[in-house]
Amino acid sequence: MSVRRLAADAIQPPSFAFTPDNQAWARMVIARYPEGRQASAVIPLLWRAQEQHDYWLPKAAIEHVAQMLAMPYIRVLEVATFYTMFNLEPVGRFFVQLCGTTPCRLRGAEDIVKVCESRIGPQRHVSADGNFSWLEVECLGSCCNAPMVQINNDYYEDLTPESFNKLLDDLAAGRPVKKGPQSARHTSEPEGAVKTLQDPSLYDGSVVGAWKKRFAEEEAKAKEASAKAAAEKAAADKAAAAQAAETPKPGKPAGDTAGLKAADTPAARVAEGKPPTAPAVAAAAGDASKSESASKPASKQADSVRGDRPSSYVATPGKSAAEAAAPVSDEHKPALLSAPEAGKADDLELIWGVGPKLAQMLNGMGIYHFAQIAAWTELNLRWVDQNLGAFRGRAVRDKWIEQAAKLATGWRPESKIGDKPTAKD
Predict the structure, then answer these.
(1) Alpha-carbon gap, residue 363 to 356, rounded angstroms
(2) Interval 232-274: pLDDT, tens
(3) Which of 33, 67, 303, 400 is packed most tightly, with the most Cβ within 10 A?
(4) Are residues 172 and 285 located together in one domain of the fold?
(5) What is the rounded CA–CA span in Å between residue 296 and residue 303?
(6) CATH number of 58's domain
(7) Which residue range(s) make up the domain with 35?
(8) Measured on CA atoms in the order 266, 270, 271, 273, is the torsion positive or negative?
(9) Are 68 and 30 spatial neighbours (Cβ–Cβ below 8 Å)?
(10) Where does residue 98 rank: exposed (0-12), middle (13-18), buried (19+ CB within 10 A)?
(11) pTM exceeds 0.70
(12) Taking a C-beta distance cutoff of 8 angstroms, is the pair 351, 398 a contact?
């Protein structure tokens, strides 16, 4: 930033005062700001003072603005000397500010500089007739119309030495001049013929309302997808209902009790007031355990015998997730007891995945013995599982029926760390 000083005292006017119209305007501007914030009006008041005083700002005008705003004179002087928009010395009637930054230089600003030097003289020099003075300034923001100048408050663009000379002649003679581009183009549009590719449909009205067609197509696709999903769900529900109809009712031989008479199942025995641990049921469970162990690889047999959590398990093979999760009515609940047989319940915590809380929940339902669980059908299992609250899914996932069948034979896991988790739900 160059050092900016006030003009010499010899050319400073003795005093300055706003005209009545400018005085009224200044008071209106000051009134926009709250009490104690009038200093915010300093720039607009200095600008109006410069316009009134032939586009330059004398010392008396700076003092007058400071007095109106109740500001120290030095504060207003700081503003006036900092901003280059304020002219601190006389300028011509037509003050030419010539843009000298890169875009204008590349487009011929140096030729415009030569015209200014030949017709007006050096920078900050007022011509002999008082009409012109000029100054090279930073970018004036019209790069696409370079080279350009600002004369007083107006822009003149797309200049050539010939058009600039004519412009100065017309201003000096008082003839009307054209503001903006001095070439044939309109504002900042491309020079010459427009060469960009254009789609005629953008202008002939054919695309008006096209967005409605697109939205209608998207809406139709959404409805079709919704109808398809509803049909698939209906088919899944129908298949689930058919599967449920084919499943044996509670009390009939099924699952681990296949081949036994209805009277030998724990459910039937409980209904007759007999102990649920019938020898035939226990023997069948033991046989099933042996048969399963013999058909498994050694690593799987170890997991199964120890009662460890299986590595993978499909709750209902051949069924979808929706069918497996379908609610089961109370008619499918297993045989339940009001109290444990002989006053002593089995330790249900020996079932992997059952902790004290789950054991308490099972006892609360009326489930106390391994034989009861071993006799469950698939629907019995799902009924219990759906009533386990926050533990839903545990009974199916951890295969309680298979574990209970082994435990009902009297088998117990080895008493070593790892066979039975120490921290349970």
Answers:
(1) 11
(2) 999 998 888 888 777 665 554 444 444 444 445 555 555 555 5
(3) 400
(4) no
(5) 10
(6) 1.10.10.1590
(7) 9-82
(8) positive
(9) yes
(10) buried
(11) no
(12) yes
